[in-house]
Design a protein that fits this description.
Two copies of one chain form a homodimer. The first copy, chain A, is of the alpha/beta class and about 325 residues long. Chain A folds into three domains: about 5-50, lambda repressor-like DNA-binding domains (434 Repressor (Amino-terminal Domain)), CATH 1.10.260; about 55-155 and about 290-315, Rossmann fold (3-Layer(aba) Sandwich); about 155-290 and about 320-330, Rossmann fold (3-Layer(aba) Sandwich), CATH 3.40.50. Chain A is built from eleven helices and twelve strands. Chain A has a six-stranded parallel beta sheet, with helices on both faces. In chain A, strands 7-6-8-9 form a four-stranded parallel beta sheet, with helices on both faces. In chain A, strand 8, helix 10 and strand 9 form a beta-alpha-beta unit. Chain A is elongated and about 90 Å long. The termini of chain A are far apart. Strand 2 (about 90-95) of chain A pairs antiparallel with strand 2 (about 90-95) of chain B, so a sheet runs across the interface. The structure holds a DNA duplex (16 and 16 nucleotides).
DNA sequence: CTGAAAGCGCTTACAG
DNA sequence: CTGAAAGCGCTTACAG
C-alpha cells in the first residue's frame, strides 16, 4: 500500500540496502547517490516504517504510561510532564487507563509488553510490590509514590502530611479530621500516617470517627461534608488527601454557610494549578509534579539501558500556606 | 531475547505455523495440540509481538492523538474519553503534545504515520484545513472544532456563545466584554462570532476595546483583569473563551474587591468539572465532552474502514446558569 | 562504494 | 490436521 524502500530502490535502480543506507546517512555511500535517493524519497512521499525498523533493531522507542484516570489535574499534569520528557529523549508514549482497577492495570502492562515498549510507568499503581513477583519477562516498570518498590519516584508524602498537620496544630487546632482516598493507595497510607504521627507527637487522641475514606474527587469531597459536620464536637480543621477533595469539600461547606477558615480550616495536597485561584485560595502541600515526571522517565531510561543499581527516589514537598487555614476558634481549643 | 513462536515450536516439536495457528485458535488444529501449545506458551511466559503481527497484517490497531497541552481539564477529559472509546474498540492510543505550535503538530502527525497508526485525532489543530492539502499518504485525520474540515466533530460554538451572550443581554447587560483565546483557534473565532452576532442583533456597538485576546489559561484570565477594569465606562459583564479564563479572571476580580455578579457578571465555556464547585459557581456553556470523544473515535473508525461519505458533526451545547451572572447594575444600563 | 543474503517475529495462502 | 515457503519492511554483517 504505502511506499517502501523497495519501491525507491527500483526507481533509483539500486538495491534496497543502498536505499536504507543512503536514508540513514551511512558514511560509505556516495554523496551523489544519497542526494538522488533522498530526493526520490521525498518525491514519492516516503515515510519509513518504524514498525519494521523496530522489529530488527529490537527497539520501539516507546514507553507505556498507565494512568488511573485523568480527571485529576495533578495526574494530567504528571502525564504531560512525562510525555514532554519522553519526547525529548526520543520516546513516544502509549497511554492507557486503569480506572483504579488492579486487573485492568495488569492487563495494560501486558498490552504494553505485547507492543514491545521499552519501559512502563504506572501512575497510582493498585498493586505496587506485586510487580516484583512478575517482572521476569516484562520490560522495566517504574512506579509513583510507592517508596517500597525499588524502581519508584515518590514525593515525601509522610513529611508533607506532617507539615500540613503541624501547621494546623500550630494554629491552635486540636480536633483535626482527615479525609483520605482509597485505602489501597500507597500515597493515601503515607499521608494518613503523617497525620497520625503528628497527633501522637502532641498526645492528641487518634479518633477513628475523624478519619474519612473517600476517592480523591470533587464529588468525594462534597460528599464528605455531611458526615464531617455531624461529628461532635466538631473538628476545627480538616486535612484532605488532595486538592480535588479539598475543593469539593470547600464548596459543600460554602453552601452550608460554614465559613473557611473562620469556622473550619482546610488543607489540601498537590497544589494543582487552580488551587491558588480558588477563593479563598487553598492552603496545600505542593508536589514537585513536573520534577516527578522527569525523574520517572530518567529512571526508566536508566533501567532500559541496563543500569541496575538504582535507588527509589523521594522528592520533597512544600507547604504552601494560603487562605483556607487560620487560627482555631477560641471556644474550640 | 524474549520467547518467540519458534522457541515454542521447538519445545512442542511442531512447526512455527502450527504454533501460530494454535494460539490464534485456528479451526483446523487438533484440540490436543492447541491445549499443549497454549500450556507451553503460558509456561514459557510468551507474549506475542504485536509488532511483528502488525507488520504482516498491516494493522497496528493504534491511533494517534495530538493534544495542544493538557493543563486544561476540558482537554484532558476529552483525551480520556477518546482513550476509553478507543480501548473499547481495540485501539491503543499514542499521545503527543503540540504546545500550540503548528510545526510540532505536523511533526507529530508524521511521527504517528511513521509508526503506522491507523488514524489520527488532532485536538485544537493550528492548521485545520491544511490537512486537506497533504492527506495523500497520511492515515485518516479527524479534527475537533473545525467544522469546515470534512472529518471533524465540533460543538456548536457559535450557538453556545450566542446563548451565553443572550443570557447576559436578557439580564440587562449592555456593555459586554469578550475575553478570547488565540486567534488561530477556530473555536475562538466561532465563539467570538457568536458574541458579535448577538451584539449586532440588538444594535449594540461592537467595540474593539471590549475584546481581549488571551491564551485560555488561568494565568491568562488573571492577566486580563487589569485591562478589563481600565475600560471606561466599565463593562458590566464578560463572556470568556473558556472556564479556565473565567476562573482566572474571577480570582483576580475577587482580589481587587470587584463583586461577582453584583459588579460584574462572568460567563465561561466548557463546564469543566470544578466550574460548578467554584464559589460562586460558574455560569458557563457546557460542551458535550464525553460525547465528542466518542464521536471522534467513531468517525475515525469509519474512515479507517473506508467509509468515505461522512459529514462533519456538530454537537449542541447547553447554557448552564449558575452564580456568576446576575442583573446588570442599575446605573450601568 | 554497493549488493545479496539473512533475519527480526509473526501470518497465511498453498500443498499434502 | 500440519508443514514449508513466502512475505510484511526494514537493517546489517559479509563480500566484493
Amino acid at each position: 500500500m504505502g511506499v517502501s524502500i523497495k519501491d525507491i530502490a527500483e526507481r533509483a535502480d539500486v538495491s534496497p540496502s543502498t536505499v536504507s543506507r543512503a536514508l540513514s546517512d551511512h558514511p560509505r555511500i556516495s554523496e551523489e547517490t544519497k542526494r538522488q535517493i533522498r530526493q526520490l524519497a521525498k518525491e514519492m512521499g516516503y515515510t519509513p516504517s518504524l514498525l519494521a525498523r523496530s522489529l530488527v533493531t529490537q527497539d520501539t522507542a516507546t514507553i507505556g504510561v498507565v494512568i488511573t484516570e485523568a480527571s485529576d489535574p495533578y495526574l494530567s499534569d504528571l502525564v504531560m510532564s512525562i510525555e514532554k520528557t519522553a519526547q525529548t529523549h526520543g520516546y513516544s508514549v502509549l497511554l492507557r487507563s486503569s480506572y483504579f482497577d488492579a486487573a485492568r492495570e495488569v492487563e495494560s502492562v501486558y498490552a504494553f509488553h505485547g507492543r514491545r515498549v521499552r519501559g512502563i510507568i504506572v501512575i497510582g499503581s493498585q498493586i505496587a510490590q506485586g510487580y516484583l513477583e512478575m517482572s521476569e519477562r516484562l520490560p522495566p516498570i517504574t512506579l509513583t509514590n510507592s517508596p517500597a518498590y525499588p524502581y519508584s519516584v515518590s514525593c515525601d508524602n509522610v513529611t508533607g502530611a506532617r507539615e500540613a498537620v503541624e501547621h494546623l496544630f500550630n494554629l491552635g487546632h486540636r480536633r483535626i479530621a482527615f479525609v483520605g482516598s482509597r485505602r489501597s493507595y500507597s500515597s493515601n497510607q503515607a499521608r494518613m500516617r503523617g497525620y497520625w504521627e503528628v497527633l501522637l507527637d502532641h498526645n492528641l487522641p487518634v479518633e477513628s470517627d475523624l478519619v474519612f475514606e473517600q476517592d480523591g474527587t470533587l464529588r468525594g469531597g462534597r460528599a464528605v461534608a455531611e458526615d464531617l459536620l455531624s461529628c461532635k464536637p466538631l473538628p476545627t480543621a480538616v486535612f484532605c488527601f488532595n486538592d480535588m477533595t479539598a475543593i469539593g469539600l470547600l464548596n459543600a461547606l460554602y453552601e452550608r454557610g460554614v465559613r473557611v477558615p473562620e469556622d473550619l480550616s482546610v488543607v489540601g495536597f498537590d497544589d494543582v494549578d487552580f488551587a491558588a485561584h480558588f477563593s479563598p485560595p487553598l492552603t496545600t502541600v505542593r508536589q514537585p509534579t513536573d520534577m516527578m515526571g522527569r525523574r520517572l522517565v530518567h529512571l526508566l531510561q536508566d533501567l532500559i539501558e541496563g543500569e541496575d543499581d538504582v535507588e527509589p527516589e523521594m522528592l520533597p514537598t512544600e507547604l504552601v500556606v494560603r487562605g483556607t487555614t487560620g487560627p482555631a476558634r477560641r471556644g474550640a481549643r
